Amino acid sequence: MPSHLALLSCLLVLVLSFDKFLLHYLKRRLFSGTGGGSIPRGPSKSRRPMAPAAAKWSETAMLVIDMQKDFVDPAMRSPMLVADGAAVVPTVAEAVAVARERGIFLVWVVREHDPSGRDVELFRRHHYSGGKGPTVKGVKNLVIVGVQTPNCIRQTAFDAVALDYEKVTVIIDATAAARPEIHLSNIRDMKNIGVETPTLEEWRR
């Protein structure tokens, strides 16, 4: 074999041997975690524990019941008008704004009427209660506002207690009835079965 070919062969053997040694060395240094040569890893993206208040609101839904012109606007001349309904509209709007700030899930329980007079309900209800419809996974607490206290509000609150929601709250100045005494009488009944009955100011603290 010519001398230059012999030299080239020797060099090739040396290079291949060095490559094997280098590969073995790199594997040991980079992947074994020894000798401080392991691949640096970024900080683990462990999920931060949710703050207690945030966790509470994430498990809460607000039911806004029948806040429609037929129920609260005297100009509509509707037979379904709740006499004191218009007075609570600003408080209901404020309660909804607070709920949005807190990330509370909002459920608008409404009725729709088509021109033929047939009821076409956006949220189909066969009872006064708004609680016997679709449920939301993970919701443990309910906050109820709207009209009117002796019918839809009361029945929804009673059903929520029967369905074992952890906390049921009716905001007393964000709900209304035909007369104040009817409203207060029903609030007392709900309070007697464990429903919390704060004002909006008390609830937002």
TrEMBL record:
InterPro entries: Isochorismatase-like_dom (IPR000868), Isochorismatase-like_sf (IPR036380). The keyword S-adenosyl-L-methionine does not apply. Residues 1-17 form the signal peptide. It comes from the Eukaryota. Gene3D superfamilies: Isochorismatase-like. Pfam families: Isochorismatase. Residues 60-120, 137-201 form the Isochorismatase-like domain. Coiled coil: none annotated. Keywords: Signal. Belongs to the isochorismatase family. This is Isochorismatase-like domain-containing protein. It comes from Eleusine coracana subsp. coracana. The gene is gb06858.
